[in-house]
Amino acid sequence: MSSDKFAGMMKMVVPTIVEQYMKERSVSWEVAIERLYRSTLYNKLEDPDTSLLNLSPLLLCDLLIEELETGKITWPEEQSVWTAE
Predict the structure, then answer these.
(1) Which of 42, 57, 63, 73 could form a disulfide with 16 if both were Cys (CB 3.0 to 4.6 A apart)?
(2) Is 36 within 8 Å of 42 (Cβ atoms)?
(3) Is the pLDDT confidence value at 79 over 50?
(4) How many domains does the structure of the chain reveal?
(5) Is 41 exposed, middle or buried (0-12, 13-18, 19+ CB in 10 A)?
(6) pTM for this entry
(7) Is 65:25 a contact under the CB 8 Å cutoff?
């Protein structure tokens, strides 16, 4: 995927994740975006080699919640668990 296309997809997916997180956790935009940006999930999301942008924003939000609550992320396709850093 080209870097322009990747950047465009990030611009579409990130706000959706944040909005969903706000709804599910009743937090402000600022709190939600800060939690996402500090997460391992976001770090992995920024890496085009992970192909995480192929997952739905709703699933990505669920993964963010899992990471924030447990410190781990269970990737759905591989069923592996990575420890959040």
Answers:
(1) 57
(2) yes
(3) no
(4) 1
(5) buried
(6) 0.84
(7) yes
| CA 75 – CA 52 distance, rounded (Å) | 9
Which of the residue ranges 6-15, 17-26, 62-71 would you say has the lowest mean pLDDT?
6-15
74 Ramachandran zone, left/alpha/beta (phi>0; psi -120 to 50): beta
Query: DSSP assignment of 29-57, as one string?
Result: HHHHHHHHHTSHHHHHHT-GGG-GGGS-H
Domain residue limits at 23? 3-83
Give CA torsion, residues 13, 18, 19, 22, to 10 deg: 160
